Structure formats: C-alpha cells, structure tokens
Amino acid sequence: MATLEESKNLDSSLRENRVFAPPAEFAAKAHIKSLEQYEAMYRRSVEDPEGFWADAAKELEWFAPWTKVIDGQAQHTKWFVGGKLNLSHNCVDRHALGARKDKVAILWEGEPGEVRRLTYADLHEEVQRFANVLKGLGIKRGDRVAIYMGMCPELAIALLGCARIGAIHSVIFGGFAAHAISDRVNDAGCVAIITQDTSYRRGGEVKLKAIVDQALEKCSMVKNVVVYKRSGSPVEMKEGRDIWWDQAMLAAGKECPAEWMDAEDPLYLLYTSGTTGKPKGLVHTTGGYAVQTYLTSKYVFDLREDDIYWCTADIGWVTGHSYVVYGPLQNGATVMMYEGAPNWPENDRFWKIVDDHKVTVFYTAPTAIRAFTKWGDEWVRKHSLASLRLLGTVGEPINPESWMWYHREIGKERCPIVDTYWQTETGTIMISPLPGATPTKPGSATRPFFGIVPEVVTRSGEPVPDGQGGLLVFRKAWPSMARTVYGDQERYEKTYWSDIPGSYFTGDGARRDADGYYWLMGRVDDVINVSGHRLGTMEIESALVAHPKVAEAACVGRPDDMKGQAIAAFVTLEGGQEPSEELRQELRQWVAKEIGALARPDDVRFTDALPKTRSGKIMRRLLRELATTGDVKGDTTTLEDFGVLAKLRENEE
Ligand code: WT7
C-alpha cells in the first residue's frame, strides 16, 4: 500500500494558487450561474435529499412512480423504491417521439474518414430492431450479454438494445486480450457476445471476432455471437452459433416495447481492477443511475440544445457508459463519436474533428492532454477550435502545467475546464466544478456534486484538518453507486464499506483546502493508473507467475511523464532459468497477450529474491521507491533479509 507520506510528496509539487473565475458570458447562459446558486442547491441536496432527487427524477419518464426515494443506508441504500422505468426509453423514445425526432443523436466519424449521422428517430428504429434480434436469440430480462466492439454507433445500439429488454450488458474494452474476455464472460455467465469483424485503429485493423473465437474456447455458456460487419475483412463464422448483425436486423421487427424495469434492477456489469488478481464486476442498477447520469451531464457539461458534445472515452470504460451513452442521450444531446486514434493519420485528428463538426463540449483524459503537449502546439494551431465552449478532463489527477496548456491552447482562455473526479464504482461524477458557477484552480477537482458528501479522514476514520492529506471517503450513499460486486457481496462490502465504518472508501488520497476544494493525490492501494486505465498490480503479477519460467513477481507503479504511471515488474525466475534481454521482452509480451497491451510492463527487472516482511508479505513500498528514485530511503525495519535490498540496489547501478 502506498503510504500517505508518499502521496504527500506527490502532492507538494501540486500546490497551486491560481484561480480562474467562470467567464461572465458563460455564466450568464449556464444552467447554474453562480457559486451562491450552487451552494444553495447543494445545501438543499444534502438537507433534503429525498426532495432534491425526486425533483431530478421527475425530469425523466417513469412507467410507474416510486413509493420511497431513499430506503436504508450506506451499502444497503435503495433508490426510487418501486419505480419502473427503462433507460433505453429515456435515452431514445422520449426524444424520438417528441421534439427531437430529427435531431442528430449520434454523429460518428470512422477512422478512415467516413461520417454517419443517426437522428433520434433512426436510433429509435435501430435500437428496437436490435432488441428484437436479442429476443429472437432467446435472450430475456436478467440474462447477461457481453459486448466486445470498437467505437461505432452499433456499440451504443447494442447497449441500448440490451437495456430495452432488461438484459444486463457487460462491455469488455476492445483492447483486452482473449484470456481477459473469457474470465469476464465466465464470471458473469454471459449467454451471448456482440462483436464485429475488425475495427480500425491507427491505420491497421484489430481482429475483434478472431479474438472472441479464441476466448470462447473457454466459455461454455455462450450460445450465440452477433457479428457486426465493420470492415468486411474475412472472419470465420461458426455454424449455429454466429450470426451477422445486418442480416439479423433486416429480419427483425422494427417495434419492441421497452421492458418496465424496477429502479433497482441491474442495468449493467462493468469489470474493473482492484487489489486482488481477479477483476470485479461492478453492478450498476437502473433508477438511481439514470437520474444521476442525467443530472451530472446536464449540470457539469451544462448541456444546451445546440451543443455538439464529444467525450473521447471508449465505451469500454465507465466514462463511455455514463458520458457517451446514458448521460448525454438522456439529455437529448448530439453525441460525437470517433472510432480511431488521436494521431491518425496525423497528430491533429482531434482538432480537425472539432472544427469539421463544430464540437462545443470536449471531454478527455489528462494522458491525452500530455500527449498533445508533447506532439507540439503547431498541430493545434492549424485549427480554429472556435466552436468550443467547455472543456473537461477525467481519469487521473491533472498536473497544473497540463491544465494551463489545455486552458491556453485548446480553450483559448475562453472555455471553463471541469476536472471531474469519480470512479467505475461511483457511476457518475462526484467532485467537479460546475462551469458557470465554480471558480477553478488548476489541478483541483474543486467541490462535490449535489448530494455528495466527501470527507478526508485518517485510517481510523477521524476527520483530517483542511490542508492535510488523508483518505477520501463519501459519508452518504448516492443514487448511481454500484450496488454490489457481481456474485460477491462480501467482497463489495469488504472493499468499500469496511475500512471506514458507515462510509464508502474510494482508495484515493486527497486533501481539502481552506476554500473546501478537493485535491486528489492518487491511489493509496495496489491499484495503478496507466494512461487513465486502471490496473491492479496483483493482476499483472498473476499473469507473470503464470509464465513457466517465472517463480515470483511483484509489480509497482512508478511516475511517468506521459502515462501518469508506468508499470515496473520485479521478477524472480524458476531454478535453472537465466535472465536475458530476450526473456525480458518475452515476459512483457506475455502479459500483453494474457491481459491486453495496456498491461504490458514498461520495465522487467530480474532479481534473485523479493524484499519481504518477516510474515512473508512482499514490501511493494520499497520496490516502488526503488523503481521511482533508484534507491530506498524509507523505513526498512520490518524487512526480513537485508541482503535482498542490497542486491536490488546493486542492480540499480
Ligand atoms: C480512479 C478511478 C472515472 C472514470 C475514469 C476512471 C482516478 C479519476 C480523477 C480526477 C484525480 C482521478 C482516481 C480514481 N481518477 N478521475 N479527475 N482526478 N484522479 O475510472 O478506472 O474506475 O478509476 O481514477 O484514482 O479512484 P476508474
């Protein structure tokens, strides 16, 4: 576990005094126009949460009303008890059958350059047809359906089609390897998987269907594979199991009424890394998630009727679920979607898209911003970016220099920046500026969203004075929080609700300043954040140990200018095995093949032994220090064998 001391060291470089008030012109037109208005609404949201959330929920359509807004507390809280609704209805029908029928819902650009526009009416038909395709395969309410696709409109249609019939989707990011797919599919007991032939990425093709074929060798529950034809590249189709998306859509009826889902019925599973080797399937439910994705999108992105809204996240991550699909579509927004890499064919692809489609709201990750900075300002300056009015970031702390670059080069000092802090588990944005109301400070996620009660505490749960670092917890339950870990309620309670009794523990370090602003300081557990992607060190270690030549492995994150954190792996070999450069590369590749390229270790260091405590626990803290600074100065008193450390130090030289 990273110590708070370590987090504080990181934090001291982040002390920052600049303050940027919301531009007056922006504030005048915003949903929430002043700090006073935010504060009044915030006060109501925590003093009268039932009233506050009921009002928000009434902006959506319910098939049947709830009888109670909040029932129970902490991990046992239920929201909108007895209410019936459907997310696909609220994202699509509500607009398609109303004034937004001909408004573009999805504005998509493929990596090779083609453009498609689906209106809300188009989306309505596609989603209903696809829901009927699923029904035709015998898939029903409560069944789990895996989705492994690239960024194309059909991916959004797949999610909404599942939601329409009450099937629980489990999206697996298109960068994961076969092994990671089979683990997730088996854990969830998925009965079908939706994929595509290949997807375009950086001029090449990712062979999604072939990877699915490989994964399914180990998945006995999957009966069908629906294959969307994106590129037309040849794929094998297994008789009786695999069907083509387009053929099935033609044959399917174009009307499919939306299921009446209970507010607490599961909507989806999403796997994320934790501190053990096994990724956990967080369960998100329908009612609270609908209301909070709707409300955060409305206020944090200040959505207006004429916005072209672009969140660059892949739908494979929670950001894509909440802020490409469910949040903006419930608001009736026009959602920009782009298939490929930001540097294809050249480094200015994103800025070309912004100008070509007149994007107004742009939401991306700090790691992307660091890459743009590195590629050079000339790529940005070739484009006007005049349509932009609001910028956002998510995924990791943004360092003030990157924030300033974003503000200056992309926002032209005109666009507010919302640095949004949240997690897969929280479902929606928890701490963030409201762009017309909150003065921003570069590097701070600023203040809590409505209804959210953060606190910075010690390990025993005592509040820490402002200005000092501690652990970030949430004192009260909120509507969009994950309800459980699929099939493992005990792990859910233990991971999030037992460290600090009565509170949800985020796993992040933070401090609050005198203005009540939160400054995130990174994870304090064995979770690392590589380019905004979350990985458990144990997961990578398990993959390494599965290699026949590896005896033991320990992985740590070390700071990296581009990725935020890089992965350093310390490896001991089986008897008789010799370290070599070839083996080093083989092990890096091995992890990429087992989990996916995002988990490929940056360094692999061979060692005779790993530093352990007398009780046999690997002292990752020492390895982290070694990988970061090249030396170990921290406390080593619990080390069992000092010789190990001496050797590791020698290797550094
Ligand atoms: C972890 C959650 C939320 C969608 C993307 C990541 C870090 C996220 C911020 C931010 C500082 C941030 C935290 C958190 N994180 N946003 N604005 N400032 N840190 O979701 O994969 O569940 O990762 O990402 O460490 O715990 P995730």
TrEMBL record:
CoA binds at residues 201-204, 319, 343, 531. Keywords: Acetylation, ATP-binding, Ligase, Magnesium, Metal-binding, Nucleotide-binding. Residues 539-617 form the AMP-binding enzyme C-terminal domain. It catalyses: acetate + ATP + CoA = acetyl-CoA + AMP + diphosphate. The modification N6-acetyllysine is found at residue 617. GO terms for biological process: acetyl-CoA biosynthetic process from acetate. GO terms for molecular function: acetate-CoA ligase activity; AMP binding; ATP binding; metal ion binding. Residues 98-477 form the AMP-dependent synthetase/ligase domain. Mg(2+) binds at residues 545, 547, 550. ATP binds at residues 395-397, 508, 523, 534. It comes from the Bacteria. One of its GO terms (cellular component) is cytosol. Its EC number is 6.2.1.1. Its cofactor is Mg(2+). Gene3D superfamilies: 3.30.300.30, N-terminal domain of ligase-like. NCBIfam families: Ac_CoA_lig_AcsA, PRK00174.1. Catalyzes the conversion of acetate into acetyl-CoA (AcCoA), an essential intermediate at the junction of anabolic and catabolic pathways. AcsA undergoes a two-step reaction. In the first half reaction, AcsA combines acetate with ATP to form acetyl-adenylate (AcAMP) intermediate. In the second half reaction, it can then transfer the acetyl group from AcAMP to the sulfhydryl group of CoA, forming the product AcCoA. This is Acetyl-coenzyme A synthetase. It comes from Edaphobacter acidisoli. The gene is acsA.
